Each structure stands twice: as C-alpha cells, then as structure tokens.
Amino acid sequence: MQCGSNPRKNHDPFDMKVFKRGPGTKDNPNLIPSHLEKRMIGCICEEDQTHINWMWLHRGDPKRCECGYWFKIVDAKPL
Q: Fewer CB near the last or first residue (10 Å), C or N of the chain?
C-alpha cells in the first residue's frame, strides 16, 4: 500500500483546500463546510486577481462578497 492511498483517511482535516465557486446566488450560495460557528474564508473574485478578499462567515448568516458571490456555512463531515 502506498502512502496516501487509504481512502478513509482525511487528507484535508483543516478544510484548507481551494473550492471552485458555484452559482453563488442568494438562493443558491457557495457552501463552506465548518465544524465551528464561524469561519474566515477568502474569495478570489476574478480569475487573474492578485489579492484575496478575506471575510468572516457566521453559521446561519449567509454573506455576500464584494464581487457579488454568496457564501454559507454548512456542517462539515466528522474527522
């Protein structure tokens, strides 16, 4: 068995991977997994942008980025 080939192992326990944005509308926000009540996220508003727009998300309170995309915290899978 090679290192990292265990399918049950969580290779991203701190949810640090980059997500591709979906529609990101108010009715269909981008879902951000979290074990906590709040989480800091970064939005790369445009593909060739050289900075990240950081913001706090709070559970139960969807938030709109300056670029117009919406984000919402959902329950993360157990570790």
A: N
Q: How many domains is the chain built from?
A: 1
Binding site: residue ranges? Answer: 43, 45, 65, 67
- Give the pTM: 0.77
15 occurs within a structural domain: no
> pLDDT of 50-64, one tens digit each?
999 999 999 999 999
Which backbone phi and psi does 56 adopt, to 5 degrees?
-95, 135
Q: Which residues are annotated as a binding site for Zn(2+)?
A: 43, 45, 65, 67
The rounded radius of gyration (Å) of the Cα atoms in the chain is 14
Residues in the chain: 79
